[in-house]
Write a structure and sequence with these properties.
Layout: H1 3-6, H2 9-17, H3 23-29, E1 32-33, E2 36-37, H4 38-54, H5 56-59, H6 69-74, H7 78-87, E3 92-95, H8 102-107, E4 113-117, H9 121-134, E5 139-142, H10 146-152, E6 156-161, E7 166-167, E8 170-171, H11 182-192, E9 193-200, H12 206-212, E10 216-224, E11 227-235, E12 243-249, E13 255-260, H13 262-267, E14 278-282, H14 284-289, H15 294-299, E15 302-305, E16 308-313, E17 322-330, H16 335-338, E18 348-352, H17 358-365, E19 373-379, E20 384-391
Parallel strand pairs: 3-4, 3-6, 4-5, 6-9, 10-12, 18-19
Antiparallel strand pairs: 1-2, 7-8, 9-11, 10-11, 12-13, 14-16, 14-17, 15-16, 17-20, 19-20
Length: 393
C-alpha cells in the first residue's frame, strides 16, 4: 500500500466525492486511476461505506486510510470501543492485538499512555497514519508479536487482548484455539498488570470461558441495538464470583444494563403463568448471559415456561430491558383463522421454543413479512400458543 499516493489531495477528494461509486465498474474500466491502483481505490471506497455506520469518527475525518475488509470486519465498532474505554481505568494501557486500532484510539481518550502492538507492518503503518490524522499523540507503536512484546514489559495498569478468532476461513469459538493463546499468557500478563481485559467472540460459551480463565471479576455481554457483538472477560489478581453485566447499546445513545451473578441465577425462583396482557422478551445480552430466572424476579414478571424465555404480566413494566408486546388475541396456526385478524396477511413472526420455525409458520398461515403486527408462537407450561400482538417497546 502506498500511503503517499492515497493521501494525495486529489485522491482523497475523489474518495469523499465518490463514496457511493460502484467499485466493480471502476475495476473493470482500468487498472490505474489518478496514478493509483484501482484495486486500492475500490478497497478504500468499501472501507468508507463500512465506516459510515460502524466508525463515524473515522468516517468524518479527512485522510483516513482503510485496511483490507477482513481487518475492518474484525475491528470493534465505535460504540463498543467507547464502552470498553469506560470500564477500565488507569494511566497506562497495552493493546497486545492492535489490529485496525479502534480500541486503542478510544482507550487513548481515557489513558495517558497507550502501547499499540501489531506484527503486521502494513496494518501498523495504516493505524499510525490514521492516528496522525485524528490528532492522537499518546500512542507508541510496536511491530511485534504479543508474546514477544510481553517479555519486554515491566508493568501496566491494564493489558487488553483481542485474540484472533479465525483459522484460515473457519471461525473459532474456544479460547484455547485462538491466537495469541490467552490461556497460556494470562498468568504472565497478571504478573505485569493488575487488570486483563479480554475480548472474545459472541459465540463463545461464557461458562466455558470461565472454566478456561482464572480470576475473572466481571463478564460484559455487549449488544448494539439488540444484536450481540462481543463478550469481555475482565480478570484481576483476586478470585471472586464474577458479575455478569448484560449491556445493550441503543441507537438513541441510551444503554440498557442488567447485572447478575450465577449463584443468584441458580437460586432465583420465578413464578410461571400463561400469557397475560403483556409479553416481554429480554434483550440479546440478557439471553446470551443466561439471566433467565434473575430477570423475572428482578422485574416481577412471570415466566411462560422453564425453557421458553418469554415473560408476562397483567400490568405494564415500562423499564423492562427488551422488547415488549401487548397481546391482541390468541390464534390457531392455520390460514383460515387468521384471515379476519390480518386482512392484508402481513405480520412479523417470532418463534420461541415452538415446533415450527418462522418460515414454516409463515407458509402454513399463508402470511407475508411486514406490517405493524407480530405473531408470537411459543410453548407454555401446559400448552402451545400462537398470539397476535403489537410491539409497544
Amino acid at each position: 500500500m502506498s500511503f503517499n499516493e492515497l493521501l494525495q489531495p486529489e485522491i482523497q477528494h475523489y474518495l469523499w466525492e465518490h463514496e457511493h461509486a460502484d467499485e466493480t465498474k471502476l475495476l473493470l474500466k482500468q487498472k490505474v486511476f489518478l496514478g493509483v491502483s484501482t484495486r486500492l481505490l475500490a478497497e478504500q471506497l468499501k472501507g468508507r461505506r463500512k465506516a459510515k455506520e460502524k466508525l463515524p469518527t473515522f468516517y468524518k475525518t479527512k485522510n483516513i486510510i482503510y485496511p483490507p475488509q477482513l481487518n475492518l470486519e474484525q475491528s470493534s465498532s465505535e460504540r463498543t470501543a467507547k464502552f470498553k474505554s469506560q470500564i477500565v481505568k488507569g494511566n497506562h494501557l497495552i493493546d497486545l492485538t492492535g489490529g485496525f486500532g479502534i480500541d486503542s484510539y478510544f482507550f487513548s481518550k481515557t489513558f495517558q499512555r497507550i502501547d499499540y502492538v501489531e506484527p503486521n507492518p502494513e496494518l501498523l503503518e495504516t493505524v499510525e497514519s490514521n492516528f496522525t490524522a485524528l490528532g492522537t499523540n499518546n500512542v507508541a507503536f510496536h511491530q511485534q508479536r504479543a508474546e514477544d512484546f510481553l517479555k519486554t514489559v515491566n508493568g501496566a495498569d491494564v493489558i487488553y487482548i483481542d485474540p484472533s478468532r479465525r483459522s484460515g476461513t473457519t471461525k473459532i469459538v474456544k479460547l484455547a484455539d485462538c491466537t495469541p493463546d490467552i490461556i497460556q499468557l494470562q498468568s504472565e500478563i497478571l504478573k505485569k498488570s493488575s487488570q486483563l481485559l479480554i475480548k472474545v467472540s459472541p459465540l463463545l460459551d461464557i461458562q466455558m470461558g470461565l472454566r478456561e480463565l482464572h480470576n475473572v471479576t466481571d463478564v460484559y455481554v455487549i449488544s448494539v441495538n439488540n444484536e450481540c457483538k462481543e463478550v469481555l472477560f475482565l480478570c484481576g489478581r483476586i478470585s471472586a464470583e464474577p458479575v455478569v453485566h448484560s449491556v445493550n447499546l441503543l441507537s438513541d445513545e441510551s444503554t440498557q444494563v442488567f447485572d447478575f451473578n450465577f449463584s443468584h441465577e441458580r437460586e432465583a425462583e420465578p413464578s410461571f403463568s400463561a400469557p397475560q396482557t403483556y409479553l416481554y422478551e429480554p434483550n440479546a445480552s440478557i439471553l446470551k448471559g443466561g439471566a433467565f430466572k434473575s430477570i423475572a424476579t428482578a422485574f416481577s414478571v412471570m415466566k411462560i415456561s422453564t425453557n421458553t424465555h418469554l415473560y408476562t404480566s397483567e400490568q405494564l413494566i415500562t423499564d423492562f430491558p427488551g422488547r415488549v408486546f401487548k397481546i391482541d388475541t390468541f390464534l390457531k396456526p392455520d390460514a383460515h383463522s387468521i384471515g379476519d385478524h390480518l386482512p392484508d396477511r402481513k405480520a412479523n413472526i417470532i418463534s420461541r421454543n415452538y415446533p415450527l420455525t418462522p418460515d414454516q409458520l409463515k407458509k402454513k398461515m399463508k402470511l407475508m413479512d411486514g406490517g405493524e403486527n407480530f405473531i408470537l408462537a411459543f410453548s407454555g407450561q401446559k400448552e402451545k400458543y400462537v398470539i397476535l400482538a403489537k410491539r409497544i417497546k
